[in-house]
Amino acid sequence: MRKETLRVGVAGLGTVGAALIAQVARRHDALAARCGRAIEIVAVSARSRGKDRGVDLKKMKWFDDPVALARAGEIDLFVELMGGSGDPAKAAVEAALGSGKSVVTANKALLARHGVRLAALAEKNNVALNFEAAVGAAIPAVKTLREGLAGNQVERLYGILNGTCNYILTRMEQEGLAFAECLAEAQRLGYAEADPTFDIEGHDTAQKLSILASLAFGTKVEEKAIYVEGISSIQPADLAAADQLGYRVKLLGVAVKTPQGIEQRVHPTMVRKDAPIAQVMGVTNAVTIDAEGISPLTLIGPGAGGMATASAVLSDIADVARGLRVMPFGRPAARLTDVRKAPMQRHEGGYYIRLQARDKPGTAATIATRLAEQEISLESIVQRHPKGADDRMTKGGSVPVILITYATTEDAVRKALAAVGRDRVISGRPQVIRIEKN
Ligand code: HSE
């Protein structure tokens, strides 16, 4: 006997909602064949009813109130595409789960803040809470960690999780463009959040990382446990120096097992140019997972934009249509463990340091001494005269000095740089970028 149609209600008709409606219509028959039942969007809710979204809404019931839609008897599944960690998204998702309906959401902010509680509510009501689209859009990172690697112990995961930042860094590197120009273009193309500081200061990446870390390590989703640094301090000089040294700069979200617990951090990172993650350009996202016996596993794909996000939403809807239900975080929400903020002072790894050093005898020796006092060993030290400058121009002035260290601690680097600062052999703030082994 053919199963009944899965009746879907969608709240939020922005770029993703409109792309989802178009895709469900286009793939109607193929989805029915795949899932063994038809999928129909029967009701929608958004802020403005009259707006032309380029899709046909005539056959869908309109709800002004997304919470009323979430509770409505006309739907079996509620899709939340409004965004934001507060109401109405939160109230609507709670209403749907509480009334025994499965939920599909692309809302990373909601999950980062209330994920554990919402997962418990879904489990209590025996319904699904699927959120593939919340991280890396079209990349099946959630399913890979939750289902594909259910039998593996993850040691580390790291990823390019923000299309806007990767787009900016790529264009700055490849075309030598200014940061602001690249950001404006990312906004125009619809990659950036309404408030782009959320992208460029690393918070979007942190929310996504908190979700992936929970799936990988069984920890509670805890955005506040993440050390966050964005890309706004990155200069073209850093990208050029990285290139010459065999590296590329990426904004990475990293979650790694350490003796102190799970370290979660977001910051600009130097990755070796030949690593798979270094090949990821533009708005594309990537996630690399090091798991026992199978590392590295890298997933690369479109990480932002309407169609890329709708693709993941639709795969989650298809799972519900098929009757598949996995616990939201791959294990009971009550068993997720507490996570503490990573003590970055104890972070261990290599460092890139760019200093503006006074061009006079003894400067290099002073810097080297301060690093040696902290037992920091140097892999390379490069001093470059600015392009076109001759000795007369830099005499008494300053020159950029670029250091690459072997593995050391954040604490040692900070102490050494503070001492160099007190020695008055540099001007301005040192630029420090962590190097991730890959
Ligand atoms: N602003 C996000 C990005 C959109 O740039 O990746 C997808 O979450």
Describe the 3D structure:
The protein has three domains: 6-137 and 308-335, NAD(P)-binding Rossmann-like Domain (Rossmann fold, 3-Layer(aba) Sandwich), CATH 3.40.50.720; 146-302, Dihydrodipicolinate Reductase, domain 2 (2-Layer Sandwich); 345-435, ACT domain (Alpha-Beta Plaits, 2-Layer Sandwich). It is 36% helix and 25% strand. The protein contains 15 helices and 17 strands. The chain has helices at 15-26, 28-35, 66-71, 89-98, 108-124, 141-148, 163-175, 179-188, 197-200, 203-217, 236-244, 306-322, 363-373, 391-394, 410-422, and strands spanning 6-11, 39-45, 61-63, 77-80, 102-105, 129-130, 154-160, 227-228, 247-258, 261-272, 284-291, 297-302, 348-358, 378-383, 398-405, 408-409, 426-435. The strands form two sheets. Strands 7, 8, 9, 10, 11, 12, 13, 14, 15, 16 and 17 form an eleven-stranded mixed beta sheet that branches. Helix 4 (89-98) packs parallel to helix 5, helix 6 packs parallel to helix 10 and helix 7 (163-175) packs across helix 8. It starts with 5 loop residues before the first strand and ends with a strand. The model has no long low-confidence stretch (mean pLDDT 93).
Short overview:
This protein is of the alpha/beta class and 438 residues long. The chain contains 15 helices and 17 strands.
Provide the number of structural domains: 3
Per CATH, the superfamily of the largest domain is: NAD(P)-binding Rossmann-like Domain
Could you say which structural class the secondary elements and strand pairing correspond to?
A: alpha/beta
Q: Which quaternary structure do these chains form? A: single chain
Main beta sheet, described? 11 strands, mixed
Segments where pLDDT lies below 50 for 5+ residues?
none
Estimated share of beta-strand residues:
25-35%
Cα-to-Cα separation, first versus last residue:
52 Å
- Distinct bound molecules: L-homoserine
Tell me roughly what share of residues is in helical segments. Answer: 25-40%
Q: Number of helix segments?
A: 15
Categorize the overall geometry. elongated
- Rounded to an integer in angstroms, the radius of gyration calculated over CA atoms is 24 Å
Kindly identify the CATH topology of the largest domain.
Rossmann fold
Level-1 CATH class name of the largest domain: Alpha Beta
The CATH architecture of the largest domain comes to 3-Layer(aba) Sandwich
Average pLDDT figure: 93
Number of strands: 17
